[in-house]
């Protein structure tokens, strides 16, 4: 029976993952360690919060003593905790390096000492930086553009170094853009949905031609579980296979789903360092771990909009506090 320590389990993806984990019969105990920053909410865990196998610990991955105590008795670690919002990172806050890099170092140190059986470090396609053409495989160079992506790239290397140095059985997952219920309204899809539902305009950067792969959050969680079970220690696995859309294409779908007028789509000058295109090859996880995404974008975007429609209590107080970054085009378009 597995005992799993999940960091960042009150955040968007972590909370979906904890719910999935608790559906599994071979999980005896789950401990969530979450600092409950502006991005973490125990409400995200829903009924899972009351599951007798779950222990929730409010605390930071930067607290080495706490992390060491918690690691004892856990066979597996899944590490989601991070500062995750690109726009906030553009302000150059040291918190991104502290949480994402130092926090990961503290976790892998403790996990190595306690000889956990598997450590899954959750990361992002943004570490590869923009691609003009082709798809990034796991051995593509790390060319992050923004501080968030750079801190994640550094944390990936820290996690992998624990495998090489101490033999910690680390796997790194890098997924494309996730969407689904419970996501903080500072992120693009919930920001657009919550504005369109209130009849407010949405603003696209540049000409809205940035291309992203949109993956349902439960598909990412399924990929992380597949890597936990079948991934080879020391390996990186890309998780994608969602739908590639430009921001304009995505916005047109959201306008339809929310029953909003076309003229609510507005444009502002591009933001700083806005990568033009991300694309990942995910054949490795498919071949080695049997991963296949199952969710249909149109159906799930509609379900996501329904969730925000039904839960204004959850997002309205947060929307008003969403961060605003000055618009500025300082880098040439790719
Ligand atoms: P999120 O911002 O919704 O959640 C982050 C969680 O980490 C929050 O609950 C927060 O309270 C917690 N946290 C922050 N600092 C902490 C600390 N010092 N100690 C303990 N907990 C702390 O993020 P998310 O979107 O759920 O992303 C989770 C992970 O997945 C991140 O590592 C992110 O880089 C990665 N990722 C996200 C996406 C995406 O589209 N959202 C895509 C690829 C990878």
Automatic annotation (TrEMBL):
Transmembrane segments: none
Signal peptide span: none
Pfam families from the UniProt entry: GDP_Man_Dehyd (PF16363)
Catalytic reaction(s) noted: dTDP-alpha-D-glucose = dTDP-4-dehydro-6-deoxy-alpha-D-glucose + H2O
EC number from the UniProt entry: 4.2.1.46
InterPro entries in the record: dTDP_Gluc_deHydtase, NAD(P)-bd_dom, NAD(P)-bd_dom_sf
Domain NAD(P)-binding, first and last residues per copy: 5-299
Obligatory cofactor(s): NAD(+)
Keyword Lyase attached: yes
Keywords: Lyase, NAD
PANTHER family: DTDP-D-GLUCOSE 4,6-DEHYDRATASE-RELATED
Family stated for the protein in its record: Belongs to the NAD(P)-dependent epimerase/dehydratase family. dTDP-glucose dehydratase subfamily.
Name by which UniProt lists this protein: dTDP-glucose 4,6-dehydratase
UniProt source species: Streptomyces longisporus
